[in-house]
Amino acid sequence: MLKAMRKMFGAGAEQFADPKDKIPLGEVLRRDWFELWYQPKIDLKTMRLVGAEALVRARHPQRGVVSPFFFLPDASEDELLDLTERVIMTALADWELFAEHGVSMKFAVNVPVSAFVKLPIAQMLREGRPRAANWPGLVLEVTEDEIIHDLNLANDVAAALRDLNCNLALDDFGAGYSSLARLRQLPFSELKIDRSYVMNCNSDRLNGGLCETIVELGKRFGLKTVAEGIETTHESHKLQGIGCNVGQGFLFAKPMPKGQLIGLMRQRLMKEPPVPQAVRGMGYARA
């Protein structure tokens, strides 16, 4: 579970430079240092922002904003479940804040499979969801290597979420080596292509071929495909050319505080008419 949590909340695979730099997750939660940052998701055909993925950060009083790999690795399961609950509820509240500023988009949050068993997620969404008529719902991302072992649970969860206008995305697709037979049984609306396949997909024949295969599978099964970890225009053009629907990565934007994303979106909404490559023109690229 811990390995999946590190990935899901944006912890990455970094190693600690010094053990004393670690911060207990319990302290982060107890002192309310936790906050969500958002990384934009871009329609690769129109280059418009169509959503954002919520990622965890901690705002330490002395060290400033701290990446998850400093506070997740030694966390207990109860602390990680507490964090999952806070992520979901915060994302729901943040959507209402965005909406107050005239910005509406669909958020994605990462959820470990164990949380669907140990947390009343459907009830949390039912009671905490925005009541606005234009709420687009929430995407709950689960990693392929976790969910592939419990298809019954996946189908039960999807059925409970469907009535709440929420859906599941299969994260890191390709890393879990699902069979096609199993893929047909998975109740997902999105496939997220693992970043290891996106890297150099324009020049690496193997990675490029894998991306093409996943996108084609998505089309055949009626699923949206999302490429994560896009860092170059060449990768973006390759993915656009093969029909990948959505992309995210440092090429377009790093994760940012919600206030910054709201400000950028408001700038965009005031522009008449919208310009091509609007995302990069609004300052979303790596500055």
Structural overview:
It is a single chain. This protein is α/β, with parallel strands linked by helices. It has one domain: TIM Barrel, CATH 3.20.20. Helix content is 42%, strand content 20%. The protein is built from 13 helices and ten strands. An eight-stranded mixed beta barrel has the order 1-2-4-5-6-7-8-9, surrounded by four helices. A hairpin with a 4-residue loop joins strand 1 and strand 2. Helix 3 runs parallel beside helix 5. The longest helix is centred in the N-terminal third of the chain and has 24 residues. The two termini are 34 Å apart. The relative contact order is 0.14. The C terminus is likely disordered.
Rg from alpha-carbon coordinates:
18 Å
CATH first level? Alpha Beta
Share in helix = 40-55%
Biggest β-sheet description: 8 strands, mixed, barrel
What's the rounded overall pLDDT mean? 85
Topology:
Layout: H1 2-8, H2 25-30, E1 34-43, E2 48-60, E3 64-66, H3 77-100, E4 106-110, H4 113-118, H5 121-128, E5 138-143, H6 144-147, H7 151-162, E6 167-173, H8 180-185, E7 190-193, H9 195-198, H10 205-221, E8 224-228, H11 233-241, E9 246-248, E10 256-257, H12 258-270, H13 278-281
Helix pairs in contact: 3-5
What key phrases describe this protein's structure?
287 residues; alpha/beta; TIM Barrel; 8-stranded mixed beta barrel; 13 helices; 10 strands; 42% helix
In a few lines, what is going on in this structure?
With 287 residues, the protein is an alpha/beta fold. The chain has helices at 2-8, 25-30, 77-100, 113-118, 121-128, 144-147, 151-162, 180-185, 195-198, 205-221, 233-241, 258-270, 278-281, and strands spanning 34-43, 48-60, 64-66, 106-110, 138-143, 167-173, 190-193, 224-228, 246-248, 256-257. α11 (233-241) links the parallel β8 (224-228) and β9.
